[in-house]
């Protein structure tokens, strides 16, 4: 991360303030260094919403979430309101609404589930092998003005054959990533990590085009203790389809030991 500009660490943004007057209501401040164009990085919004849900749902890990991005969140105070929708012995469903002023920015629906006994234990697909470990790959430098501002909070090691806007036949991005200023890497930070790369459809374009998240779903596939803050994760994403200014793509994230941590499906829209 650049040392000559002020930045706010991820762990500080994710430290939510409880509202004493309203149960299951929280707040945090969005700093400008977490921006993605005119909006706040969607992965950060998801991480904030998940931390709000975790404070309200106890005893069950988060298994899945669906998020709708309704309006751009901008630097400033962000309110988080959590509503418990349904709870049972094994499952809990809750909704987090992120708002600024009198308008909602995003809604995240989370499903929490207790561990069940099962005859099946499928680890999921393996990541593509890397010629070198991430520590020996070249770190993608942060270039102010040419890259989204939030990317300075992540350490990227790019392994894709094609770069952005290269007119690639198939949309695909692979690489390694780690958070530079997280105090721990739980499901909230994993959500931010799996959203930290650009949509793979951008490798298929021949000129820059702004894009943003419309809808997003993530399944967490491997329940394990929080990763070490400096641990690299392996990332892969591929374009499924693109037409009419909308692109669907899937992404996967593995830990350093090869455990599949999360699978994501996202609809990106070309911003006007």
Describe this structure in words.
- The protein contains three helices and 14 strands.
- With 272 residues, it is mostly beta strands.
- The strands form two sheets. The chain has a twelve-stranded antiparallel sheet with strand order 1-2-6-7-8-5-11-14-13-12-10-9, with helices on one face.
- A hairpin with a 2-residue loop joins strand 12 and strand 13 (246-254).
- Helix 2 (42-56) packs antiparallel against helix 3.
- The longest helix has 15 residues, at 42-56.
- It is globular and about 50 Å long.
- The mean pLDDT is 92.
Strand and helix layout:
Blueprint: H1 10-13, E1 17-18, E2 25-30, E3 35-36, E4 39-40, H2 42-56, E5 62-69, E6 76-87, E7 91-100, E8 103-113, E9 154-158, E10 172-179, H3 187-194, E11 211-220, E12 233-243, E13 246-254, E14 260-270
Antiparallel strand pairs: 1-2, 2-6, 3-4, 5-8, 5-11, 6-7, 7-8, 9-10, 10-12, 11-14, 12-13, 13-14
């Amino acid at each position: 991360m650049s040392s000559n500009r002020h930045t706010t660490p991820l762990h500080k943004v994710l430290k939510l303030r409880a509202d004493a007057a309203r149960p299951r209501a929280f707040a945090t401040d969005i700093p400008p260094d977490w921006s993605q164009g005119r909006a706040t990085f969607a992965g950060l919004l998801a991480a904030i919403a998940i931390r709000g849900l975790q404070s309200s749902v106890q005893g069950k890990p988060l298994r899945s979430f669906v998020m709708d991005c309704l309006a751009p969140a901008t630097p400033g105070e962000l309110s988080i309101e959590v509503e418990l929708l349904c709870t049972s012995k094994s499952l809990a469903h809750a909704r987090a609404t992120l708002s600024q002023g009198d308008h909602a920015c995003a809604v995240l629906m989370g499903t929490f589930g207790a561990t069940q006994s099962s005859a099946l234990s499928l680890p999921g697909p393996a990541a593509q092998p890397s010629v070198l470990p991430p520590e020996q790959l070249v770190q993608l430098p942060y270039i102010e003005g040419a890259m989204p501002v939030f990317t300075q909070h992540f350490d990227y090691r790019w392994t894709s054959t094609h770069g952005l806007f290269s007119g690639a036949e198939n949309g695909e991005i692979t690489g390694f990533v780690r958070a530079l200023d997280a105090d721990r890497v739980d499901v909230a930070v994993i959500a931010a990590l799996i959203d930290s790369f650009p949509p793979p459809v951008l490798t298929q374009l021949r000129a820059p085009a702004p894009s943003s998240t419309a809808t997003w779903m993530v399944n967490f596939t491997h329940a394990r203790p929080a990763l070490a803050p400096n641990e690299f994760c392996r990332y892969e994403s591929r374009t499924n389809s693109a037409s009419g200014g909308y692109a669907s793509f899937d992404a996967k994230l593995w830990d350093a030991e090869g455990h599949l941590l999360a699978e994501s499906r996202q609809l990106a829209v070309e911003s006007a």
